[in-house]
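Much of our argument rests on the idea that a fold can be written as discrete symbols. The record that follows shows the chain in one-letter code together with its fold in token form.
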Amino acid sequence: MEFDAVVLAGGGSTRFGGVDKAMLVLDGMTLLDRVLTATEGSTSTVVVGPVRTTYREVDWTVEDPPAGGPVAGLAAGLQRGTAPIVVVVSCDLPWLTKDDVSTLVDGLGEYDGYGLRDSSGQEQQLATAYRRTALTEAIHQVGDPRDKSVRRTLAGLDIAWSEPTRAGDDVDTWADLDD
């Protein structure tokens, strides 16, 4: 099934002391390149954030205004691509694989979205495949997407979730890299 990928990579990495989390290296590869490897089956890939060096060619965009938060990033990313399914991932999912992305797309079924739970069972809206129409409408309903909550914005969508998996574990602190 055709899908586009939107990779959110514009956060301030405040818990990392301002270090660019997307460019942190784990096992010889940046966190961003690890996610780009997992999503390389996409029809198009757009990274929302400042342009960086990556192992493969992608489109780049930024939210308007910059630093407007993840919902603003989603709104900017949805302006690219045309596939009916959009896989939305944050750049800090180092254990996400191509198989996990296939599971997201294949699991969509009749739902608006199908997402990963992290290893603790937390639902990860930024590790989810969505129907483009449903995601676009949810963001449209919120109005100005700047500084809006992802959970609140997507609360009206019918989303199914995986069993807990390490693939859904994001890296928010230095300790998360040691797991």
